Amino acid sequence: MLQNIGHIPQLSVISILDILVVAFIIYEFLKLIKGTRAIPMLVAVILLVAAFWLAHIEQLKTVDWLITTLFPYAVFALIVVFGAEIRHALARLGRRLSTSRGGVFNGTDSYEDIVLAANHLSQTGTGALIVIEREIGLRTFIESGVPLDANLSYDLLITIFRPSAPLHDGAVIIQKGRIAAAACFLPLSMNPVLSTQFGTRHRAAIGITEETDAISVVISEETGAISIAVGGAIERDITVEYLRERLSEVLRRYVPPAVLPTTVTDREMAAEDREVERLSHEKDLADGAER
After folding, report:
1. What is the mean pLDDT of residues 22-27?
2. Residue 205: inside a domain, yes or no?
3. What residues contact residue 151 under an 8 Å CB cut-off, 6+ apart?
4. CA pair distance 201, 221, nearest whole angstrom
């Protein structure tokens, strides 16, 4: 027994690193598909692989031949089935590797128009969806709507989302501080939990942030509540002040504190005048003494 223990292989640093990398990949993959439609599909794939493996062990020649023939095509089938999850994983990886998010959004006051528009739309109970592009381009979604390429302004946003306006359905996409397009179609979030809690507008707001690093501001037509979606997560029923702070944070823009003018009372002004007169009088006395 002691002789067998002596033959236990020693783990090297490379082996430990290899195990940790594989464990991290598996963990990230499971975290990625948690709560999505990929879970039942993955279970079905595992059951089929187990059934085929048993068929190979039991030497079922026909089934073994079928597996060998169809395996190359099964790989492409899995890529098609899990295409959305693969896109989400690559987009998340790109966001992590990116070092300068928000640099494409020009103008420190640009999002103030968004905040003011969201406040007005919330008070009037007007549904709206505003998407702000960051590092990952949204050209595919821009081309699905009506191109505008207009200056971002409060008045234009209010006009677009007016219920009687022809462009109020769909999303407005803001690119480099300009309104690139309106009435754009966005991908819906496929999270089965969200589908029971939100309508189409909110699911679209979450869906675009799952596939890209964009920011979505959505106003509910039923309640007038303001929500913001970032990185596939949504914050619901937020205040206008919090929306302003959140946009400032995610867009990496510094907002200097407002410096209010100081109110000077009549008493303080009179005291200052007396102090000036006293200093002037002392200066005259000093000049007379020198003479």
Report:
1. 86
2. yes
3. 178, 179
4. 9
